[in-house]
């Protein structure tokens, strides 16, 4: 177990850089912290590149730390330095660098995808990922300008679901989404401009559900691609729903219809 005692340690510096999206993209990895989150990573069998343990954690969990050292590359970090790499106010003393999972997705299977179009709030994005995991969605597609699903706040909001749902960042032309549509997928877009009630529609097995920005809604590009514009009924007169709530309602209606057909 390598001991990190200096703030100038190269490994420590590289971990701090993971707070930046640019560096996360370059090294194709991200940082997690907390005992429950780490256990979920192990359960999901993702690639754990490095583990960081504080002195205090090792003193309290010496046998567990020794077990981790047999399986992973583990670093023991001086307590004062350990706090510097974490984002939470009261770190639990265990964190890790995780390799992003490779996605090998095709349009052949009959699946459900969620298209997150310029979602800005990390909590909303994390909740959408968590709900997509719950309904067994094939993946989350997110457009340029959407909050990074691998930033700290988004990751915490996923409650570990980030390890189970493929995340696909589409380009400015939405080439991945277009490829799915060429493969027979229908794009259903939630829009306040729509006249069609979401609950009146029947949804194909090959389906992309799109939800838009918290303030501005769906983008013109995604709306122009839509096979169907729908709206969720709000008889109480509310102006709109929180985007993660809207996404959850849509996903579970699709799940309900699929269960009824099977």
Written overview of the protein:
The chain has 262 residues and is an alpha/beta fold. The chain contains eleven helices and eleven strands. It has helices at residues 10-17, 21-27, 35-44, 55-60, 62-71, 79-85, 122-134, 152-158, 175-182, 220-225, 243-261; strands at residues 2-4, 29-33, 48-54, 74-77, 94-99, 112-116, 139-142, 167-169, 186-190, 207-211, 228-230. α7 packs parallel to α8 (152-158). It is elongated and about 60 Å long. The model has no long low-confidence stretch (mean pLDDT 94). One of its GO terms (biological process) is RNA processing.
Strand ordering within the main sheet:
8-7-6-10-9-11
Strand content: 15-25%
Provide the domain count: 2
CATH secondary-structure class of the largest domain: Alpha Beta
Biggest pleated sheet: 6 strands, parallel
What is the mean predicted local confidence, pLDDT?
A: 94
Q: Please trace the helix and strand order, writing H or E for each element.
A: EHHEHEHHEHEEHEHEHEEHEH
Radius of gyration: 21 Å
CATH architecture of the largest domain: 3-Layer(aba) Sandwich
Helical segment tally? 11
Q: What structural category characterises the helix and strand content? A: alpha/beta
- What is the third-level CATH name, the topology of the largest domain? Alpha/beta knot
Q: Mind telling me the CATH superfamily name of the largest domain?
A: SPOUT methyltransferase, trefoil knot domain
Family: Belongs to the class IV-like SAM-binding methyltransferase superfamily. RNA methyltransferase TrmH family.
Keywords: Methyltransferase, Transferase
Domain RNA 2-O ribose methyltransferase substrate binding: 31-104
Organism: Clostridium oryzae
């Amino acid at each position: 177990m390598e001991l990190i005692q200096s703030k100038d340690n190269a490994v420590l510096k590289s971990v701090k850089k993971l707070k930046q999206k640019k560096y996360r993209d370059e090294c194709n990895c991200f940082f997690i912290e907390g005992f429950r989150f780490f256990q979920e990573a192990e359960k999901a069998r993702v690639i754990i590149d490095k583990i960081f343990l504080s002195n205090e954690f090792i003193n309290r969990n010496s046998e567990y730390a020794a077990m981790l050292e047999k399986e992973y590359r583990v670093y023991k970090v001086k307590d004062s330095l350990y706090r510097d790499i974490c984002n939470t106010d009261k770190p639990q003393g265990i964190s890790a660098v995780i390799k992003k999972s490779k996605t090998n997705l095709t349009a052949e299977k009959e699946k459900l995808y969620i298209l997150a179009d310029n979602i800005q709030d990390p909590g909303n994005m994390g909740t959408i990922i968590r709900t997509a995991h719950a309904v067994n969605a094939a993946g989350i597609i997110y457009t340029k300008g959407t909050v990074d699903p691998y930033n700290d706040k988004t990751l915490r909001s996923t409650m570990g679901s980030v390890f189970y749902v493929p995340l696909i960042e589409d380009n400015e032309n939405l080439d991945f989404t277009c490829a799915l549509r060429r493969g027979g997928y229908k794009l259903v877009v939630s829009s306040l401009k729509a006249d069609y009630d979401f609950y009146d529609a029947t949804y194909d097995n090959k389906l992309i559900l799109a939800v838009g920005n918290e303030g501005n809604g769906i983008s013109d590009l995604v709306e122009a691609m839509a096979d169907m514009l729908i709206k969720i009924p709000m008889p109480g007169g509310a102006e709109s729903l929180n985007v993660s709530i809207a996404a959850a309602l849509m996903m579970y209606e699709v799940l309900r219809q699929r269960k009824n057909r099977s």
